[in-house]
Amino acid sequence: MPQLIASVEGVEIKHVYLQKDRTTLGRNADNDIVFDNMVVSGRHCVFEMHGLADVYLEDLRSTNGTYINGQMVKERRLLRDGEVIAIGNFRIQYLQESERPSGFSQTTAMRIDGPGGPMQAAFKVLNGSSEGLEVPVVKAVTTFGKPGVAVVAVSHRRDGYYVAYMEGATRPTLNGQPLGEKAVQLSSHDVLELAGTRMLFRLE
Hints:
Elements: E1 3-8, E2 11-17, E3 22-26, E4 33-34, E5 45-50, E6 54-59, E7 67-68, E8 71-72, E9 77-78, E10 84-87, E11 90-95, E12 121-125, E13 134-137, E14 141-146, E15 150-157, E16 160-167, E17 173-174, E18 177-178, E19 184-185, E20 191-194, E21 197-203
Parallel strand pairs: 3-4
Antiparallel strand pairs: 1-2, 1-11, 3-5, 5-6, 6-9, 7-8, 7-10, 10-11, 12-13, 12-21, 14-15, 15-16, 16-19, 17-18, 17-20, 20-21
């Protein structure tokens, strides 16, 4: 059965098996696959399945485009096994499988837990008008920041939480060190500075 494996900076965030004739991807909550990020349009693209394994990708006139192998998708296109789709910093690998996986009856997303069960994480704002505010991290991927200024994505996977620089002119820092292009694992009491706002990461 065809499947999609989505990641941000090498951190897997979603694993979806395609069983519907049409599977939509976008920022709006009514999509089959939801990426809550400003680089993703409300309805960004659609995956159409024909027969048992042929999957076509079509961009739905998105603002930032959908890319395969560095080329913008301008018309409906048949996906090949192993191809990687790029939407902003999101990477979605397409894999073709002929066998139906057991236990899946509809398009589903993989549950992402920490070792020994779910971990509870939050950021506490240390300065500014929101000082003292605690923001829980509850999604597989949570974005923080101001579009165009500085945006990071915090991803939750089995072995912990990771932060990755997404976009913006101002490079965020973690414990005083600028974030690079690769995702960095967060530890409890790390301090993230984002567009002048300092936030303490807490993990329990």
